[in-house]
Amino acid sequence: MNATFVITEINSKKTGFLLEDNSLVRACSLCNESIIGNVYSAKVVNIVPSINAAFLDAGTGDYLYYSLNDNTNHIFLKHGNTEKVCMGDELLVQIEKDPIKTKKGVATSDIELSGKFFILNRRNEVGISHKITDADIRKDLKAKVGTALDGYNARFSEEGKKLDLGAIIRTSAEQASESELSLELNNLVHTMNGIVDSGMHSVVKKLIYSPDKSIKSELLDIKNKYETFSVITDLEEEYNLLKVDFGSDIKLYNDNMVALHKVFNLEDKLAKAFDRFIYLKSGGSIIVEPTEALTVIDVNTGKAIKGKNTEKSFLKINKEAAEAIARIIRLRNISGIIIIDFINMKQIESIKELLDYLKNQLIKDEVKVTFVDMTPLGLVELTRKKEAKPLTLQDFL
Fold this sequence. Notes:
six-stranded mixed beta sheet; five-stranded mixed beta sheet; 8 helices; 22 strands
């Protein structure tokens, strides 16, 4: 599959657009207001035993949710004599999820730092990308990284720090030299140690660390997913930022006759993708209805029925709809519970073919999507991990 990432301004807003074979699948503001990845010194202001959670004040404007089930390896900055988290304690935490509408932001003690070759974390284990398939390479990489981290953990333990460092080895590590891997791992560990030290000497409710929120690191991840990948921008500062890492894969667009967003018809693609009705090439249509509790998506035949073989026609429309739905979910950043009402089909083989096709489309999503089941009424249930707020057309106007 071929992909192009377009960086330009739409309505004076710097925005990135990911197109797969010329179909728009993602749009994101490059004026990033997300606090995901930020590390704060936070104070425990409430403990709720019924949900086994704490609420923290990190000075972000609202309290943060901190699960005591999911977080057991706390980094205490100020603590009493008990082993439990108590009111008044001060913790070092990282933002895992942005606040969305009435939902609190989510904080975690498992601080992660992303690099080109590794994601450093506090899980005290080494994982590796499933895209690295050679068994010998996997074994060698995991052994070397594990040995290095054991050394760092032992050293920090002698200093009285329990960091429990672990890492996920990224796909790009397979092509890197040993010196490149060693240098990045050392830099990430140094940064992690610096964050902890800064937190220990900081006042409470202070931002300790904010990751680089430029598009560069995300683009490097995206690039590995496609057979061919290119970046095009008409913004010189973005071109200069990315040209070292992307070389010939990035192009500076400087045609004054036609704006870049016009070349890719981006405004029209946005308008159609965010409409309540999504029309399919077959003549069928999709209706997207977001509610407070879940998102309902209905597939209709419209004017698509021709000939006598309705089962075959229904399968064709449903598969086209499945591809469009997977794309719309990514583009709009729809999360939580998603219910899809496909056109009813009678043959078990047709239903299985549709569900397999839908699952293959959902794999393309950067955010975890779980296929739950098809109910006795023929409704398909999905869940998509909540990370950031869902997008609407107004976000780009």
